[in-house]
Amino acid sequence: MTGTVRLRAHAKLNLYLRIHATRPDGFHDLTSVFHAIDLADDVEMAPGAGVTMSMEVPGEIEGTANLAARALASLGAEQLAIDITKRIPVAGGLGGGSADAAAVLLGARDCLDMSMSDDELSELGATIGSDVPFFVRGDGTALVAGRGDRVTGLECPHTFWFVIGVSFSPLATGDVYSRWDELDPAPAPASAEAMIEAVTTGDVAGVGALLYNDLEPAAVALVPGLAARKEALQECGALGALVSGSGPTIFGLAAGPEHAQEIAEAASGLFDRLHVVASSLRSVQRVR
Length: 288
Fold this sequence. Notes:
It contains ten helices and twelve strands. With 288 residues, the protein is of the alpha+beta class. The chain folds into two domains: 5-155, Ribosomal Protein S5, domain 2 (2-Layer Sandwich), CATH 3.30.230.10; 161-278, 2-Layer Sandwich (Alpha-Beta Plaits), CATH 3.30.70. The strands form two sheets. Strands 1, 2, 3, 4, 5, 6, 8 and 12 form an eight-stranded mixed beta sheet that branches.
């Protein structure tokens, strides 16, 4: 067993999210463009036992909702202790739990000198959460398909800047999908291919115009105030705004760092917390 391993587990935004039919296993197929940002949790692993969390955001993560603990249990790694500094909002549509789980899988492999490949870790991760394979792969940007288990990394040399509007009232992913099942799906105004072209070429205005999330109407139906906050973020100068994943987090795209700061100042008071963030080249990275 090696010594202490520390990884940084980044939040993700869904720049494009299309939901398809329900699968026989009860999950939904999807097509999405995931994009990692520099809002991140720190995951530290060392010899010992148990999972602890230092919460810098409100909320508790217990039982089956603790994906990091489930990841550790899936490996049978009872001799490892995990400490997570939690900065990504809980149940906010930013993939924080999945990122932590992926970091645990990757860190445990290093700590215990396990011979599991990335493919094997991804397959195991998919049993823990649909977003986990993206984080196991570590790409900063990727096309994600299937139930989240088909991940194709994308080259994204351009740094995008965002203003993240956080609500401290969590929104359960299962509730949002159930509400989506009750709605009549609208035709997507753009394609994943168009978003991929804009992202990989650094077309900031194009990305802003193409932002799309099938789950947004369901999230708004459950939390009606989201629509007004999204509109307000756009009125504050965002090039485009969107609910990320199942929400309730809303993000706005900025032209650059100064523009992001201007939007954040104008949007002060609209959300429980605001973050100005940039793209991350990796979704999970080892820092020690």
